[in-house]
Amino acid sequence: MSPPSATSTENGTNGHSTKDSSRASTAAIHEPGLSESDAKVQMPKFPGPPKFDDKYEERDYLKGRLAAAFRIFGKFGFDEGVAGHITLRDPVDPTSFWVNPFGVAFSLMKSSDLIQVDHNGKVIAGGPVRLLNAAAFMIHGAIHEARPDVMCAAHSHSIYGRSFCSLGKKLDTITQDSCAFHDDHVLYESFNGIVLADKEGKDIAACLGNKKAALLQNHGLLTVGNTIEAAVFWFMSLEKCCYAQLLADAAAGGKGEETKKVGDEEARFTYKTIGTPMAGWFSAKPTFDVIHKETNGDYLN
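Below the sequence we write its predicted structure tokens.
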């Protein structure tokens, strides 16, 4: 992937500073001691998400991106029957959020299908199917309330994510891609069945804290972002990191060995390039472009 330069002034979701005066943020990520002036190739600067003066125009645009996010989840097989949900904080009324209606296939989702839910769990607007997944409200409602910085939260029962979550441990930093989650994800060590209680939703939000991702033990992955694109990319990437670690642990274990871990200094430096909110947004762009091409924009209807 080609993430934005770490010279972005944005902060990572876990408080990692993206600006470090002691070393160049545009240097090659495998050379944490390289100065900016010595770096042979500099990362270019990239555009950010569109800005809107009209909140209603912003809502329409973001609902389209949310519908595209569901198409992406469907494309990659992140659906499991009726399980899974992605939410968008409403820019017009930030105390409410948009979510998929219960029982509508991810791969068929359209902007007009989405439903708006208030802070009490009442469906107040949206498409013809106004069924709300109670677990979606309990988990996402608590997260949106606890984290004003979160625009989008994503959760589903993806195969490698839920497999890894059965191990009851956090992800190891064993690849460049996993550096995006270095000290930026948590393990929620409880499973009480389908989340239908207000308390468990709040417990998950409290455990997540200011991180970008949570491994819900015996359950699945949860990611958040300050854009829809970032939350979706973090989910896709975390799923693949879980897959990579399952394979690597099995291969190493078969030889009575352990995987080689990335050092803390190198991981933190790499995070500044691939783990920032802007990196998440930009890294998702190609996938959103592909889904638009493949569907001819059908999700926007």
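Residues 1-13, 17-30 have pLDDT under 50 and may be disordered.
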